[in-house]
Amino acid sequence: MTAPGEHTAGPLAGLLVADFSRVLAGPYCTMLLADQGATVVKVEGPAGDETRHWMPPSRDGEATYYLSINRGKRAITLDFDDVEDLALARALAHRADVVIANFKPGGLTRFGLDYDAVHAANPRAVYVSITGFGADSALPGYDVLGQALSGLMSVTGAPDGEPTKAGVAIVDVVTGLHAGLGALAALRHRDATGQGQHVEVNLLSSALSALVNQSGAYAVAGVVPERLGNDHPSVYPYGAFPTADGELVLAVGNDGQFQRLCLVLGIPDAAADPRFLHNADRSMGRETLRPVLERALAARSATDWEARLTAAGVPCAPILAMDAAFARARALGLDPVAHAGAERVPGVRHPISFSATPPEYPLAPPAADADRAWVRRLLGDPVP
Q1: Model confidence over 143-184: pLDDT tens digits?
Q2: What are the sequence ranges of the domains in the chain?
Q3: Cis ω on the peptide bond leading into residue 237 (within 30° of 0)?
Q4: CATH number for region 16-210+336-378
Q5: Residue 16 forms beta bridges with which residues?
Q6: Whose CA is closest to 243, among 177, 176, 209, 293?
Q7: Does the annotation count 116 as an active-site position?
Q8: Residue 11's CB: how many other CB atoms inside 10 A?
Q9: Catalytic-labelled residue, pool 172, 191, 245, 335
Q10: Which of 40, 160, 280, 284 could form a disulfide with 17 if both were Cys (CB 3.0 to 4.6 A apart)?
């Protein structure tokens, strides 16, 4: 069912997503699916999605947290302890192409909304379960717990400081991306076989995968990585360095880039020093090389060095605040802002570009229970 102002095209147009998720991982996943054309129905309990109340900051009295991850959706509030509301929830799940839920393991079983019950009634449905730590753990799925238990915090922060969480709920975000990838892969299988399946993702597995070289160092070689501040464990110089007026990030990934760095900085002796010729040498000798680089960088501002090094093909960047980051994106032709719905609620643009089916933003983030009548019509008024 397509309503005025809703998707008529997009790579996922025609798919119905029943979104039984809240907070971040699930809603972020379903927003990306909505941007790509899917019809997403957001189901909330009587208390609503917690992020509606996570303020400040806010915009016109609504939490920016909620607004940032819920555009493109229809919203209905359902109390599963109410017979009619539960019937609506089941009708939605039985009609959906994709069901996404992030309840605690077993939390939907008594309502007949778990995978087995939905699959029995709707065998074509792809059912995505998002948990904190797997189907056998009742530990609440909070991002900061995932950062702590995965080892992410153990490798984040200064070497002589305390373990530090990332400045955003990155484990939730990565888990949401994995949920979307799993859903699309399962839909591909459904298209080939006619059968849906159960897709399971969790914060801990997602974090361990996202730690890539850090977790891989342990899995492959038994190496337990440590905190290095802004340094990289295997590449140097690769991190933040002080200049005359602020820090500049260098990302010198090969020997040729290091040679050019030294020429621009006016330290040709370092480029020829056998202790620094190759990346492994520089990584091992970083404490000897660091003061050489810092003395040279102290001569100019971060902005000046950025221009000179970029012209020489040396990857570098200043550390920007959010307003400057948006301005830089615009300067690069990557306008980061999109406006959703007739209300033109601003948000961050979908990160993927499609040459034939660009993302659309026909619906602003919905108010609680804003689309009950619409959902009932979509389902053919299953409850009198």
Answers
A1: 999 999 999 999 999 999 999 999 999 999 999 999 999 999
A2: 16-210+336-378, 238-329
A3: yes
A4: 3.40.50.10540
A5: 39
A6: 293
A7: no
A8: 16
A9: 172
A10: 40
Which residue bears the tokens 């192409």? 97
- The CA distance from 104 to 71, in Å, is 25
Angle CA 92–97–99, to nearest 5:
65
Within 10 A of 161 (CB to CB), how many other CB atoms are there? 10
Distance, CA of 68 to CA of 45 (rounded, Å): 20
Architecture of domain 238-329: 2-Layer Sandwich (3.30)
Cα separation, 189 vs 38, whole angstroms:
18
pLDDT in tens, 206-260: 999 999 999 999 999 999 999 999 999 999 999 999 999 999 999 999 999 999 9
The amino acid present at 184, given as its one-letter code, is L
Q: Residue 80: which residues within 8 A CB-CB, separation 6 or more?
A: 45, 86, 89, 111, 113
The amino acid at 256: G
DSSP letter string, 13-36:
TT-EEEEE--TTHHHHHHHHHHHT
For 345, the token pair is 């609620």
